[in-house]
Fold these 4 entries.
Entry 1:
Amino acid sequence: MSEKSQAALALFLDDRFNCTQAVLAVFCEAYGLDKEMAFKVSSGLGGGIRRGELCGAVSGAAQVVGLKHGQTVAGDMIAKDNCYAKTHEFADKFKEIHGSIVCRELMGHDVWTVVNEETKKLHQEIHVTICAKLVESAVKLLEELGY
């Protein structure tokens, strides 16, 4: 396991940052974004924006792609298209590995529709058994793609 993967897992499991925050935080400083701001801008995206939608680890990875390839000049369609292509590349590879990029599908449960003690307990179990592996996988895939 790489240093970045270990660091992301520590942020996710030990420090209780969400999946998006954990992925973004281990790459952000290399692209000029400090960790405090990375934690802030990604804090609402974990757990598929708390609705089981797009996997938070994938959201964090998309933010890393944007930090490296994102459009910064108005009308720069080359940069925009390149960033979109790089985002698709990551998402397609992640989906190929895991079968989906949707949080509730990856978790095997929709713990977001009804939040009660039972779903909170289930989410905690899934957090450790499934989500941690997805965070690690997203970081590993980003590294393999040169981030």
Entry 2:
Amino acid sequence: MGTRIYVGNLPYSADNAQLSQMFSAYGDVVDARVITDRDTGQSKGFAFIEMSTEESARRAITALNGAMLDNRALRLDAASERPNGGRSGQSNGGGGYSDRSRRDDRPRNGGW
């Protein structure tokens, strides 16, 4: 498994191929993925790049953090893992259906 890099302040026009080419100057790119809105397909303005080694990721971060792309200064950092192990579509609580009675569902005049 490689080392992932977060790329923020990305121009909305940037695509996976462009990022892969840009980062390949610093080592082997395992994956380059612009994050898009699932409904519109529009870029959300950030991406994740996976480099084959930690050293190549460090070189890319050092060289490209603050670099200009379409008049935007890129912000790069080592990507951190999601708290739930990186699986999308799962949450750690909140929301959802419960068949338990809620406090507001009780009669107001003291009787059950």
Entry 3:
Amino acid sequence: MTPRTIAALGVLTAWVAALGFLLVSVPNVELMTLSAFLSGALVGTGGGAVVGFLAMAIFSGLNPYGIAPPPVYATQMLGLAAIGAAGGVVGTRVAPRGIVSVLVYGALGFALTVFYDVLTNLATAVVIGATADPWPVVAAGLAFTVWHFVFNAIFFAVLAPPFLAWMRRRHARRLA
């Protein structure tokens, strides 16, 4: 790993974590999912996973509302790592223009948010001892996070295409 790569991962990690703190007081509205995804599109699958993992470790570890219990903390980091990796896989393969990309990225933002919330809600069920039947806890958590799905779908639909188009123009040789 080159010093340039390490620096890029550090800057992207700081960017993702900072965006987490930017909206920390607004329930279920965040830009970390989108920014981790875009980071993966920029630096690839492995780099996106590293950025997502480290950014969530920083954000959740320093959250002003307190750190999550260990199982939830671990799934938060793994979930955002998977989203960063997804950016490396998908982010460079869908053309970032036109209504189709808006729909694709909106659906992707929705699906990745559902994945993340199911994962962390399952960890919450473990924390509260509902391991025999975790699905009522997961369902209750998902009902609370509907706005999370909606806002991330909108953020992905509206912001991902222009950012990816800019990244393609600016970093075409790296994203090929």
Entry 4:
Amino acid sequence: MKLKKNDNVMVLTGKDRGKSGVIERVFPEQDKLIVKGVGLVKKHVKPSQKNPKGGIIDINMKVNNSNVMIICPSCGKPTKIGLKVSDKVKQRICKRCGQSLEGNTK
């Protein structure tokens, strides 16, 4: 999987199409990820120590990695990810402008 935690991505399909957010968690074995503010669903919870009143909470659901595209930090557009190997170091690059995507992580 070429996407990593803290990458800025844009959603391509589904009810949240066009929204962008930061990847919070990656599940490479399932090819899914959690994007902050995307795929929100309501969940009914019983009262517990963590949530003493119970009620309805919003949670982020997993999104398939094929439904998102990384946003290049230099050109600011959604792009495909390319790989460049130099001096035995693998680096992710933007297919549009050719710049490195590694400056995108926080």
